[in-house]
Amino acid sequence: MIDPITASSILTSSEYEEQQLTRDTSRDDMGRDAFLTLFTTQLNNQDPLSPMDNEAFVAQLAQFSTLEANYSMRDSMDAMVGGMRQEQMLAGANLVGKSVAVEGGYFSSQQGEQTSGNVDLANGAESVIMSIYDADGEVVFRETTGARLPGTTDLNWSGFNTKGEMAASGNYTMSASIIRNGKLETAPVTTFAKVKSVSWDPAAQEMALEIGNGSTVAMSEVKRISI
After folding, report:
1. Using alpha carbons only, how large is the chain's radius of gyration in Å?
2. 153-169 tens-digit pLDDT
3. Which residues are within 8 A (CB) of 181 and not within 5 positions of it... i.e. 6 or more apart?
4. pTM reported for the whole predicted model
5. Residue 112 belongs to a domain with what CATH number?
6. Count of Cβ atoms closer than 10 Å to residue 194 Cβ
7. Do 120 and 165 share a domain, yes or no?
8. How confident is the model at residue 144 (pLDDT cuts 50, 70, 90)?
9. Domain identity same for 159 and 112
10. Domain span at residue 154?
């Protein structure tokens, strides 16, 4: 049988590099408990006639104190972040059932109900084309209006389709296109959507809102809140 020391010595350079990259490094850092155990063991086994040098003792004690302080600070920060998250979740629960203004153009409409949205036109437009789509992506209504000055432009849908008939209740999407300098451009539409539930997004460290169509928007994306 090959001796373990000999076996490791005959590894090629590429094999050794792979071994170092894949080895478990989770135990490389000494934790608080391991440091304390090592420290107290060292004190218990030192020679009474030749005790540890005072400077070395103070240095190790300082290291332990620093480690304890760092752990305490981390625990305090974790507790503070956890408390803030709970407060935000409780505040977010009050949004369930309310309407929030978000980009995307989604909205739920009851038969005969008028729906409003808006677009921000920083440079104005020669004309604005508003389109209403049903849940299947079919055009329900389309309207073209004249020139608009820079600023926010309101879009209103009366609830009737292109045939002049009242559209059924359901989920719809409002979109807008503008003509500026003779070119057709799309413009993000902001509408009000009902909040179905709230959750915590650990990646963004903020609340996420589930709206009526099942999509999720970040709390930071909400522009207005309405009853």
Report:
1. 32
2. 999 999 999 999 999 99
3. 126
4. 0.55
5. 2.60.40.4070
6. 18
7. yes
8. very high
9. yes
10. 108-189
Instruction: Indicate the Cα dihedral angle 53, 57, 63, 69, nearest 10°.
Output: -160
Over 90: is that where the pLDDT of 179 sits? yes
* Tokens 């059932």 sit on residue: 97
Structure tokens at 6: 């000999």
- Same-domain status, 210 and 151: no
Q: Tens of pLDDT along 75-87?
A: 677 666 656 666 7
Task: Kindly state the tokens that stand for 48.
Answer: 């009474």
CA 164 to chain centre: 42
Give CA–CA dist 92/53, Å, rounded: 58
Element housing 101 (H / E): strand 99-103
Higher pLDDT residue, 46 or 127?
A: 127
Residues 162 and 220 in one domain: no
Number of domains in the chain: 2
